[in-house]
Design goal:
Immunoglobulin-like; 402 residues; alpha/beta; 8-stranded mixed beta sheet; Rossmann fold; 2 domains
Length: 402
């Protein structure tokens, strides 16, 4: 009889052989951390002729649509109008839906898919753009001399968390510092406060707005001075109007609280001037905003004209409850202060010819000029879109701090 150790080895070998004889060989294991692989999907794909192909793997979907407010082929009939149905998707046998649109002008564009009516971001695209209560996929179509990512010195954009003593909570803003800021440890810079519109957030100007790249290119071309750009969150809550200071006062009651202006004056400006190397005088401080941010710019600047040398209002004017008469009364002291007008270098408005707020913009300019200001208005092509707002920033920034 074989020794005990030999008998055990023979038994183990016999058991093992029987086990694997009865079971098929296992399938090759997938790469670590990955399950079975489906079709390779590339989306979005920007083609050389500026057309863009969008794809999504959705084998069980019955309908797929493309949504994006600024993409010309998807723009509807304006506010309150139903969305444009958009281009038709085709579904391949492997479950990949695909459509191609364009050509599209160079720029950054937000989009989402509607899969069986449900909005989803593009799962193959890591580029996103935030808004106040939403997130979008982002595609950049190259070819712009002003907003492309170019081989020039680049600044930095930081997401900054601060505590708002005015509102009793933590808030966030984005801050652009120009090329060389970290290396030039003693140099101080002017500050430009740049406000977003309703429904957006402090991240919007740097993603879909391309503000950092626009400033990088302007500074590299010596068309703009190096500056710090502060982009705060204009909403103070998840509601569309939160913090906008746009609500109407109840009959006979006090005006609504303007939470954003309180936060801006009490916390944002002091934080920036404490934590960044800024030149803290009127000549080196400017403010501008689009849509709701343009209205907020008016509210802040014309109560604190001693703090800002230049004011920009993009696709906006006096907004909110009460209209221009109420606003004019609330700002009379600054509007009629001759001494404050002397240090104000520029009040600049621009709105698209197809923008529903163009009449509001023009009437605001007329009101300011009635009080002795020299506000200018430029009518541009287009509507209430980021296509215009990026162009306005490109035109407004070179005149700052010159």
């Amino acid at each position: 009889m074989p020794p005990r150790k030999t008998r055990l080895a023979i038994a183990a070998l016999t058991f093992s052989s029987a086990l694997f004889a009865q079971a098929p060989a296992p399938a090759p294991a997938p790469a670590a951390g990955r399950g079975p692989q489906g079709p390779v999907v590339t989306s979005p794909e920007v083609l050389p002729d500026h057309r863009v192909t969008f794809r999504i793997l959705a084998p069980n979907a019955t309908t797929v649509a493309l949504r994006g407010g600024d993409i010309p082929q998807l723009m509807g009939g304006g506010r309150g109008a139903p969305p444009n149905p958009g281009p038709t998707f085709t579904k391949a046998e492997n479950g990949v839906w695909e459509t191609t649109i364009g050509p599209i002008d160079p720029g950054a564009y937000r989009y989402t898919f509607a899969v069986n009516g449900v909005a989803v971001i593009d799962p193959r695209n890591p580029a996103i753009s935030e808004s106040n209560t939403n997130v979008w996929s982002l595609v950049v179509v190259p070819g712009s001399d002003t907003m492309d990512t170019k081989d020039v010195p680049h600044g930095a954009v930081a997401a900054v968390t601060y505590h708002s003593s005015a509102l009793g909570k933590f808030r966030r803003m984005h801050v652009y510092t120009p090329p060389g800021y970290e290396a030039n440890g003693s140099q101080k810079y002017p500050v430009f406060y740049l406000l977003h519109g309703a429904g957006d957030c402090d991240e919007a100007w740097t993603s879909v707005g391309r503000a950092g790249f626009i400033l990088d290119n302007l500074i590299a071309d010596k068309k703009a001075k190096p500056m710090i750009v502060v982009m705060p969150a204009g909403h103070t809550s998840a509601q569309m109007g939160g913090g906008g200071g746009r609500g109407a006062a109840a009959a006979g009651g006090p005006p609504p609280r303007d939470e954003f202006t309180e936060d801006f004056v009490t916390d944002i400006m002091p934080y920036v001037e404490k934590n960044y190397r800024t030149v803290n005088d009127r000549a080196h401080r400017a403010i501008a905003g689009l849509s709701m941010g343009g209205s907020q710019t008016m509210n802040i600047a014309f109560l604190h004209l001693d703090k800002f040398s230049q004011i920009g209002v993009f696709s906006s004017g006096i907004l909110g409850g009460g209209g221009s008469d109420v606003w004019e009364k609330a700002h009379t002291a600054d509007l009629d202060n001759a001494a404050l007008k002397k240090g104000l270098k520029r009040v600049w408005f621009s709105t698209g010819v197809n923008d529903s707020l163009i009449t509001n913009s023009k009437s605001t300019v007329e009101l300011l000029n009635k009080h002795g200001f020299q506000a200018t208005f430029k009518e541009s092509p287009g509507a209430h879109t980021w296509i215009n707002w990026r162009n306005y920033l490109t035109e407004f920034a070179p005149g700052l701090f010159q």
